[in-house]
Amino acid sequence: MKNEALHAIAQAAAKNIKSEADLNEFRQMLTKITVEAALNAELDDYLGFSRHEPSETDNHRNGYSRKTLQTEDGQFELDAPRDRSGSVEPQLVKKHQRRFTSMDDKILFLYAQGMSTRYIAATFKEM
């Protein structure tokens, strides 16, 4: 995507952003849309055909699985696409993954520094 197109989207979104909460909500919505599009592209690549295209395989799309994904900015509901055989292994958000790895890395770092799990949980709740 070109920089001009991104700039136009940001200007249109800025008209509705009045507070920090609005900005966080927009960021979560943008993350959700981007992750879902990437997961759909992964499934297209795995199956070898796009949505609504005819295929000669037995494996097809089979709806979505809803999961709650935790990020640094809060949590949001994600609709992850499924295949009929259940054989696809997504790379961006793996099966049973509930957090983005950057958050896990931060938790492990704090724990390695000697912080208790209770203090880490309280710190993330404050953030």
Written overview of the protein:
The chain has 4 helices and 2 strands. The chain has 127 residues and is α+β, with helices and mostly antiparallel strands. The radius of gyration is 18 Å and the shape is flat. The model has no long low-confidence stretch (mean pLDDT 83).
Protein topology:
Elements: H1 3-14, H2 20-47, E1 61-71, E2 74-83, H3 101-112, H4 117-126
Antiparallel strand pairs: 1-2
Low-confidence stretches: none
Measured as a percent range, the helix fraction is: 40-55%
Distance between the termini: 32 Å
Main beta-sheet strand count, sense and barrel state: 2 strands, antiparallel
Strand order of the largest sheet: 1-2
Q: What is the total tally of β strands?
A: 2
Strand content is 15-25%
Total helical elements: 4
SSE class: alpha+beta
Q: Choose one word for the global shape.
A: flat
Q: SSE order in H/E notation?
A: HHEEHH
Report Rg. Answer: 18 Å
What average pLDDT do the residues reach? 83
Assembly form of the protein: single chain
Provide keyphrases for this structure.
two-stranded antiparallel sheet, 127 residues, alpha+beta
Summarize the structure.
By secondary structure, this protein is of the alpha+beta class. Helix content is 49%, strand content 17%.
